[in-house]
Predict the 3D structure of the following.
Amino acid sequence: MRYLLIVDLSLAAFGAALTVAIGFVALVFTIYQDASAKIAAGLPAILTLTACFVTLMLVAGAAGWLLKAKKPVHWAAQVALAIAIPVLWQIVFSTLRG
């Protein structure tokens, strides 16, 4: 179970780091969306990416917390994480492809 906890917390940290990075870009895009049509057109994609990484952070963090707390529902959280990762992967890459 220790390795599963490490994977969960690593995914949560990865999601948190990307949330901060892409969230800053989303903030800048929001502030300057009136400056250029290209920025305004790119804002929905940036917000979609931010939402995906927030979701990864929350689902992986919840799975890790439930595993660490030894709650019986932690397996449901692991299944939710296992389902969320490929779904988020598809959303992120379809957004990046445009």
The mean pLDDT is 95. The longest helix spans residues 37-68. DSSP finds three helices and no strands in the chain.
